[in-house]
Design goal:
250 residues, Rossmann fold, six-stranded mixed β-sheet, four-stranded antiparallel β-sheet, 8 helices
């Protein structure tokens, strides 16, 4: 089976005063369809930069990003924007919901921006299905201010998966949440992967979050230092991952 996502010798260099910062130094990896992969590492290790390159939000200094056989790293801006809209979903630490819109309207917003009307039966079906997946169908007509923080992040997840993207990118999605609520969010991400075959790439500093992944790529100084295979499983204890990370000095 061909990987759904590949990075080929990615580098990323930023100007910093009179010098340069090498955020990524020749990273290559592959993600299989339906896989749940986590990037972990200390601050400044390059994990968020890597996610931005893989998701087409930024361009590498050198190397290639290939999504479903298409090299997205060399696309023009308009082409890259269309591909992100059609093939990817994003969940960030900030919920980024529109306050005046209901949960259902927030989930439907990407469809509306792409030109599909609110009465489109396919749009309605996809939105309702995504809200059911995160157990918010009963609160679909509530505005963000009427929802708890965890529920707002669940709306953000529903919005990201409603378009049935090839791959879902999540950047510290539990960073603004307490422990118990964060676990709920991780369960929904895992559910989308295990039940719907959604490919998920997660960036996190938290071993409890990383423990939900099938495998963890540990980054340091812009390189993949270690790959930790965990496998698909129904229980997600963090201790085995914490022990492995301790050996890496995390």
């Amino acid at each position: 089976m061909r990987p759904i996502l590949e990075a080929r010798d990615l580098t990323k260099t930023y100007r910093a005063g009179d010098g340069e910062v090498r955020a990524l130094q020749g990273i290559s990896l592959a993600v299989e369809p339906g896989e749940f992969v986590a990037f972990m590492g200390p601050s400044g290790s390059g994990k968020t930069t890597l996610l931005q390159l893989l998701g087409g939000l930024d361009r590498p200094t050198s190397g290639e990003v290939v999504l479903e056989g298409v090299t997205i790293s060399s696309m023009h801006d308009d082409e890259a924007t269309r591909l992100r809209r059609d093939k990817t979903g994003f969940v960030f630490q900030a919920f980024n919901l529109v306050p005046l819109l209901s949960a259902r309207e927030n989930v439907a917003l990407p469809f509306l921006l792409a030109g599909s009307g609110p009465g489109d039966p396919d749009v309605r079906a996809r939105v309702d299905d995504a809200l059911r997946l995160v157990d918010l169908d009963a609160k679909a007509d509530r505005r963000p201010s009427e929802l708890a923080f965890g529920e707002q992040q669940r709306v953000a997840i529903a919005r990201a998966i409603a378009g049935r993207p090839a791959i879902l990118f999540a950047d510290e999605p539990t960073g603004n949440l307490d422990y118990a609520t964060g676990i709920e969010i991780l369960e929904y991400l895992y559910r989308s992967c295990a039940e719907r075959g959604q490919t998920v790439v997660l960036v996190t500093h938290d071993a409890q979050a990383g423990a939900y992944a099938d495998r963890v790529l540990f980054l340091r100084d812009g390189r993949v230092l270690e790959e930790i295979g965990l496998g698909r499983r129904s229980e997600h204890p963090a201790r085995p991952l914490i022990e492995r990370l301790a050996l890496l000095g995390q």
